[in-house]
Specification:
This protein has 432 residues and is of the alpha/beta class. It has 2 domains: 197 residues, Rossmann fold; 234 residues, 3-Layer(aba) Sandwich (Rossmann fold). The chain is 42% helix and 14% strand. The strands form 3 sheets. A 6-stranded parallel β-sheet has the order 3-2-1-4-5-6, sandwiched between helices. A 6-stranded parallel β-sheet has the order 11-10-9-12-13-14. Strand 5, helix 6 and strand 6 form a beta-alpha-beta unit. Helix 1 packs across helix 3 and helix 11 runs antiparallel to helix 12. Bound molecules: uridine-5'-diphosphate-glucuronic acid. Uridine-5'-diphosphate-glucuronic acid (UGA) binds next to helix 9. Uridine-5'-diphosphate-glucuronic acid binds next to helix 9.
Length: 432
């Protein structure tokens, strides 16, 4: 099949590369010519394990075409995916759909034979209806179907999630579109994953409900972790004990710092906004957003307590600053408010992240990027394990810090409290 992905951000790029790998001809379109030139040379602008190899392979086989020529790409494709960003609007909770509607207005000019127009971007329920309105005119009524096909890829695991999805959701009432979509996904859904055809609005809402539910699970376990800290219980036991009940499930029950990233924070806010528009009080989602915001403050206070509320000139090391491992993404990472606060309080902050130096900290005082773990940890007062990169899982802290009386705050519960006790290192985890 011939596909066109509009937008070469995370969703468009990963999906485009993976669709080409199962034999489709895929145009990846972006208005940013520099990005297109970069991609054409086989470079990948984001950190995603396995993506560069796959991209290079499909470029070589001429199945993957990067272009800024939207017209040509759309005219030559049967299926067009809208994969542009839907960030939170300034000073509001709603998703900003201006990019999506702009693409729809452009597409209208190029619908001269039947095409399926798909939203892969995360868009609030009823957006598909609005896109249909934009696209429709007297002549092209039967020449297109607007379908919702939300993506469920996790950063850092995106290729595996694409090839082995738990489910594929296709939101359309059109039998014709559904048949074509099923054959597009056939190489993937053959491997046991479930294919659901729902209404378009249903598919749009499934995406938000899924992300909000996962965010709820995380916030729930984070609050129980707070209780564990007061009662001397280990949160890992709770996650294991609860998660073994198949009705609950053991995934997304890892306590940690506040959840971050480009999806959960933005999508929970947008869902609340949609609820408000339809006069529905999504009180659980509201509490989750609130709980997650409070968590950033709570953990920052704990850092301060660990330094005896005397932050001036203390050396604090962050190991990992991204919102999760295997990504270079800093969006809504809890390290940002923590480091900003510590910098204001005149701490000396050193950080190391396998994905390098971060712009988010470049204008902050006393924040230094270190090229390796060793230089980041030397003579530190407090080591904060913020992101669970594999690089941080087997460290000999005494050798690294070379100083007495340092403390460790393990925000991902990577290390064993017992082993730390034996080593006589003051060690603090989450919910233990
Ligand atoms: C999330 C969803 O998991 C994907 O299914 C979805 O497609 C994607 O959003 C999206 O909407 O595009 P992602 O943001 O890449 O994926 O990251 P997650 O692995 O879900 O992690 C999100 C945050 O939750 C991270 O900060 C992570 O550290 C935290 N988390 C996750 C926990 O604190 N505990 C857990 O048990 C799991």
């Amino acid at each position: 099949m011939k596909l066109c992905m509009i937008g070469t951000g995370y969703v468009g790029l990963v999906s485009g590369v993976c669709f080409s790998d199962v034999g489709n001809k895929v145009y990846c379109v972006d208005k940013d010519q520099n990005k297109i030139d970069y991609l054409k040379k086989g470079n990948v602008p984001i950190y995603e394990p396995g993506l560069e190899e796959l991209l290079k392979k499909n470029l070589k086989q001429n199945r993957l075409i990067f272009t800024s020529n939207l017209k040509k790409a759309v005219l030559d494709s049967n299926i067009v995916f809208i994969c542009v960003g839907t960030p939170t609007k300034k000073n509001s909770n709603s998703a900003d759909l201006k990019n999506v509607f702009e693409v729809a207005r452009q597409l209208k000019k190029y619908i001269t034979k039947y095409k399926i127009i798909i939203t892969k971007s995360t868009v609030p329920v009823t957006t598909g209806d609005q896109i249909e309105k934009i696209l429709k005119n007297q002549k092209n009524k039967k020449l297109f179907d607007v379908v919702s096909n939300p993506e469920f890829l996790r950063e850092g695991e995106a290729i595996r999630d694409f090839i082995y999805p738990d489910r594929v959701i296709i939101g359309t009432n059109s039998k014709k579109a559904n048949k074509i979509m099923k054959s597009l996904y056939m190489p993937i859904i053959k491997k046991n994953s479930r294919y659901f055809n729902t209404s378009r609005r249903g598919a749009e809402l499934i995406k938000y409900a899924s992300n909000a539910f996962l965010a709820t699970k995380i916030s729930f376990i984070n609050e129980i972790a707070n209780l564990c800290e007061k009662t001397g219980v280990d949160i890992k036991d709770i996650s294991l004990g609860m998660g073994s009940d198949q009705r609950i499930g053991d995934r997304f029950l890892r306590a940690g710092p506040a959840y971050g990233g480009s999806c959960f924070p933005k999508d929970t806010r947008a869902l609340i906004d949609t609820g408000n528009k339809f006069k529905i009080d999504l009180s659980i989602v509201k509490s989750v957003v609130n709980s997650n915001e409070k968590r950033k403050i709570l953990l920052t206070k704990k850092i301060s307590t660990l330094l005896n509320n005397n932050l001036n000139n203390k050396i604090v090391t962050f190991l990992g600053v991204t919102f999760k491992p295997n990504t270079d993404d800093m969006r809504e990472a809890s390290s940002i408010p923590m480091i900003k606060y510590l910098s204001k309080k005149k701490c000396h902050i050193r950080y190391f992240d396998p994905t390098g130096k971060k712009d988010e900290f470049k204008n902050l005082k006393n924040v230094e990027y270190c090229k390796n773990i060793k230089s980041a940890c030397l003579k530190s007062d407090l080591i904060i394990l913020h992101t669970e990169w594999n690089d941080f899982k087997l460290l000999n802290f005494k050798k690294l810090v070379k100083k007495k009386n340092f403390k460790i705050y393990d925000m991902r519960n990577i290390y064993s409290p017992l082993k730390m006790k034996k080593l006589k290192i003051p060690y603090f985890g989450i919910g233990r």
